[in-house]
Amino acid sequence: MGDGRVRYVRNGDVRLAYRVYGDSEPTLVWVPTVFSSIDRYDDPAFPWCVAVQRLSQQLRVAVYDGRGTGLSDPVLRAPTLDDRVNDLVCVIDAVGAQQPILLGLFTGGMTALALATRHADRLRSLFLYATAARFTQAPDFPWGFTGRQVEQYLHEIDERWGEGAFADLVFGESAQVPGVREQWGRVESSLASPAMAALLWRAYLAEDVRDVIGRVAVPTVVAARPGDHMVPYEASVALANGIPGAELLTLPPGEHHAFDIVDLLIEKLLNFCESPCAATNERILATVLFTDIVSSTEQLSASGDEYWRHQLDVHDGIVDALLTKHGGRRANHTGDGVFALFDVPSRAARCALELVPTLASRGLRIRAGLHVGECEHRGDEWSGLAVHTGARVCSMAGAAEILCTRTVHDLAAGSGVVFESVGPQAFKGLPEVIDVYRVTAG
């Protein structure tokens, strides 16, 4: 799939445009900034085109446009950080990347950081350039844009978008060289419409991830340039200091764009990508969801192979869409069902509650089981008592029934999810009797 062709992946109602270059693992996913246009990667005059071509000689490189920009769908509201993280997960899944390296520039670094704090098991490492934990000043954060400057650039977008509105910010004094402003103006026009640019600029610059960066648990490099007028070097230093074990890579002084040091940046990035990273072998606390299609063998016999393959495709499409909607991720197929992981028990329960009727309306009856506990991740495999418990609880459920353990019941208290006690149950292979509850829509 590394032919560079434009493809689309859907996250809910939004279609995201992406391209993949090269075929050599590992995969590098280039997380877009506030504005992006993967259509520019065919233009040799566009500096990042050169970067992608060079990187794809040794890596598999995936690039995509954020919602509202480039070739991706426009949006009516500003995407939240959660939206952007979920979009990134959808792209990673679409390209089939197993523990990719994330390259995050400017606001793309914030998206990469957020994913690393939520799903470190899915990533190999982070390489961040010209980014920070926030981009505007605060009483306890003296670097970045002032409120007045944010409004000033909103005015520039309104008045001069497509004419080099951000040329001074990106290029500094070089913006005065004849042709630079005009050339950058043409780039701006391909990134987003003026209204979309203003919407995204205001939203992205209001975000702050300082409270979560201490939980980043993957190898991370923070690259920065003294003299960057968009992201002050000191803000990047503060970011590197806040991430456990992060390396600060100080590049030659210069402007934000880095187009003058593309070769050096590529060299540093490739060296980082080639460095050995220990295979993920860790335990995480998660909510496990197991589902299973009821009487699948009988349905296959009655309907035939072709129709059943169609039904399984319908099943997979609905499951993937609802997992994304509720913040879950598929860990594996389980024959005629799915094994998924969630960070929040109530979200897993609500996902199951929506899966049952949605699939039933397509002629697919499922059962589901939920549990919360520590899961061990070894390579591509998940194991541990919590995984086995979730599977056993699912196997006990009847058609259209969702069962869970007391752990889920207790942690989801106050969420609005309704539980009915089924009583203590003994499961084969599990050391203790477990209190089981039925999950209902109320």
UniProtKB/TrEMBL annotation:
GO MF annotations, alphabetized: adenylate cyclase activity; hydrolase activity
SMART domains assigned: CYCc
Gene3D superfamilies noted in UniProt: alpha/beta hydrolase (3.40.50.1820), Nucleotide cyclase (3.30.70.1230)
InterPro entries the UniProt entry points to: A/G_cyclase (IPR001054), AB_hydrolase (IPR050471), AB_hydrolase_1 (IPR000073), AB_hydrolase_fold (IPR029058), Nucleotide_cyclase (IPR029787)
SUPFAM superfamilies on file: alpha/beta-Hydrolases, Nucleotide cyclase
Keyword rRNA-binding assigned: no
Pfam families xref list: Abhydrolase_1 (PF00561), Guanylate_cyc (PF00211)
Domain of life assignment: Bacteria
UniProt GO BP: cyclic nucleotide biosynthetic process; intracellular signal transduction
Stretches assigned to the Guanylate cyclase domain: 287-375
The entry's keywords: Hydrolase
Protein's recorded name: Adenylate/guanylate cyclase domain-containing protein
